[in-house]
Amino acid sequence: MSEQGIGDRGGSPRQPSPVIGRVGLQQRVLPAYRAPFFDALAAACPGGLSVFAGRPRPDESIETADRLEIARYIPARNRDFLSPTSPFYLCWQDGLLDWLADLQPEALIVEANPRYRSTPAAVRWMHARRRPVIGWGLGAPQARGPLGGWRNRGWPRFLGQFDALIAYSQRGADEYCARGFPSDRIFVAPNAVAPRPAAPPPPRPPEFAGKPTVLFVGRLQARKRVDILLHACAALPAEMQPRLVIVGDGPARAEFETAAKNVYPSAEFPGARSGAALDPYFAAADLFVLPGTGGLAVQQAMAHGLPVIVAKGDGTQDDLVRPENGWRVTDGDIPALAAALQTAFSDNPRLRRMGLESYRIVAEEVNIERMAAVFLEAVTSCRVKG
Question: What is the pLDDT, as a whole number, of residue 145?
Fold first, then answer.
């Protein structure tokens, strides 16, 4: 299946329309990790890219970018109703139509989230001028809870306003298709936060030099579930228990360090590292583990030739972590994580081959450059629904 569109299984290939010039892109917030992608997309758009985004709530702990190098960043004023974690959350973005009127984009990309209540007005503004709007999102999973039935019924109408959809993953694309959106107007751009690696992976010997080294890199928050990783390492046979290095800082660091003293005293907490300071940790590791949600460092680890174990989440890891390069385990399942660790350490040559496959995936399939190419293909192929 092509990443350019889930409808590309057969038939004639798509015939792109003439390249569209100015492109607008709406986000609720501008996370720092997205800045390189937006700049890469801006460089690929002949007429440039303007990004309209607001600030997160203070309780969200999202690191944001204050500027972009190539794309134009226009700050929005978000008006939030409750917290984004609430099932009743809603968001309005003041100034959205003024931004469109000033920019006059030839195509618009928006977050495909029905809780952002200013989006329909932007779609109507664009369609009144016969200009396409593309929704970009995680997918449309079955909703649960008190509003689940109402939300499930509302998905087809919400998605129907878009001229095309871009999904973070194949799972998300399948969910959009299941909601009745035409498959030939769905594009899959695997979620990428790192560019194509510029250097080959560091060489690693066929056998471990002493104990295998397990690495975690990330902000130390409760949702990262480092405690699960500690328990899983402790559950291994003594001869298999690895050196565990936990790189990062955050509000849960003291809690995790206390847990480590009781559960896995040999765990190392070197603190926060970034950029080139992370390279020695990736080079010395044999396996990267993300036991909880999030995890921007997974692709970084793969670019350093590491096999990975990740918790199953929203589908964004599905296209990245495969049986050929790692394991996906249920979030919070200590026995499953321990079993994956034991399997990983039982065959050293296989683990090295899996690391090389990780490198190939981020070099060839999941990187910022490929993601930008899919976005551009979606924009140039898009037509306003007649």
Answer: 67
Cβ–Cβ < 8 Å for 332, 225: yes
Q: What is the pLDDT of residues 237-281, one digit of tens each?
A: 999 999 999 999 988 999 999 999 999 999 999 999 888 899 999
**Domain positions in the chain:** 23-192+367-381, 213-364
Select the more confidently predicted residue: 3 or 353: 353
Residues 108-123: tens digit of each pLDDT: 999 999 999 999 999 9
The 10 Å CB-count burial string (b at 16+, else e) for 27-59 is: bbbbbeebbbbbbbbbebbeebbbbbbbbbbee
Fill in the DSSP letter of residue 31. B
23-192+367-381 and 213-364: same fold? yes
Is 17 in contact with 99 (CB distance < 8 Å)?
Answer: no
- Top CATH class of 23-192+367-381 equals alpha beta
Q: How is residue 157 written in tokens?
A: 């109408």
> Angle 253-263/226-234 helices, nearest 10 degrees?
10
Residue whose C-alpha is closest to residue 170's, from 11, 294, 316? 316
Looking at residue 200, the DSSP 8-state letter turns out to be P
Class of CATH domain 213-364: alpha beta
Cα distance between residue 355 and residue 353, in whole Å: 5
Backbone conformation region of residue 210, classed left if phi is above 0, alpha if psi is from -120 to 50, else beta: left
Lowest mean pLDDT among 5-19, 150-164, 264-278: 5-19
Angle at 60 between CA 58 and CA 64, to 5 degrees: 80
Q: Which residue has the tokens 């299984």?
A: 9
Strand order in the sheet with 133-137: 72-75, 49-54, 23-29, 107-111, 133-137, 164-167, 186-188
Phi, psi at 92, each rounded to 5°: -115, 145
pLDDT at 13: 35
Helix ranges restricted to H, the chain: 35-44, 96-103, 119-128, 148-160, 170-178, 226-234, 253-263, 279-284, 297-303, 334-345, 348-364, 368-381
The pTM (predicted TM-score) of the whole model is 0.85
